């Protein structure tokens, strides 16, 4: 793994090692890999500057073929992917970079921003909380942290609201029947042949049901025992 945070330093160290032992195959292989990684990074940076983000992604990927755990290349590719709207892939790259280098603030910030784009506020908040602990004087992070908290509360409130659904059509159709007063005549309009003592009346169960606002969507099944108890 060549994971030097500064590419120039990595190339210099590799070249010095090669000079000390020019016949060492492993050292020469490291030199080649280091140069290829540095070249891919330079190419990717130039393409990014030209806003050719897809091509820049490919260039950084070529560098990662030589050094899969290079946190700088992973973060740079994440930036390209976020520019392309590929936020999930960008998050994956940032996470990989942070696994290699947990203190990599740029990768953590990029991941927080991508989670915000996806409205994954809880994950977003976790990264901002880490950053504010590292630099409590950072006003920009503090403001973004507060906004993430507000958005998370709104999201939770919306989820709670979405679980409360209006009554179903079946309930609305039966509602007038349930709310109708008992008939004064001994003959029920629904069952004319039933004796007066069996005339429809609302049971205590139905009364309690009607007295409570119902916001859960369901199909009401009314039995004879509840209508004529």
UniProtKB/TrEMBL annotation:
Q: State a single Pfam family of this protein.
A: TPR_1
Q: Which GO terms describe its cellular component?
A: cytoplasm
Q: Which Gene3D superfamilies match?
A: Tetratricopeptide repeat domain (1.25.40.10)
Instruction: Specify the protein name.
Output: Uncharacterized protein
Q: Which organism is it from?
A: Camellia sinensis var. sinensis
């Amino acid at each position: 793994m060549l994971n030097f945070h500064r590419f120039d330093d990595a190339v210099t160290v590799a070249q010095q090692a090669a000079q000390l032992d020019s016949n060492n195959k492993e050292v020469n292989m490291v030199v080649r890999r280091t140069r290829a990684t540095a070249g891919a990074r330079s190419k990717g940076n130039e393409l990014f500057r030209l806003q050719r983000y897809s091509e820049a992604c490919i260039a950084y990927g070529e560098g990662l073929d030589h050094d899969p755990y290079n946190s700088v290349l992973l973060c740079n590719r994440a930036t390209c992917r976020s520019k392309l709207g590929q936020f999930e892939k960008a998050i994956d790259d940032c996470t990989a970079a942070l696994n290699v280098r947990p203190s990599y603030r740029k990768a953590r910030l990029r991941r927080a921003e991508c989670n915000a784009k996806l409205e994954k506020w809880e994950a977003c908040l976790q990264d901002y909380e880490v950053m504010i602990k590292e630099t409590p004087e950072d006003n920009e992070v503090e403001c973004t942290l507060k906004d993430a908290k507000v958005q998370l509360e709104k999201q939770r409130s919306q989820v709670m609201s979405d679980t409360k659904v209006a009554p179903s059509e079946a309930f609305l159709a039966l509602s007038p029947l349930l709310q109708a007063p008992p008939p004064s005549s001994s003959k029920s309009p629904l069952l004319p042949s039933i004796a007066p003592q069996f005339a429809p009346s609302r049971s205590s169960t139905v009364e309690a049901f009607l007295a409570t606002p119902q916001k859960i969507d369901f199909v009401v099944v009314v039995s004879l025992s509840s209508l004529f108890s």
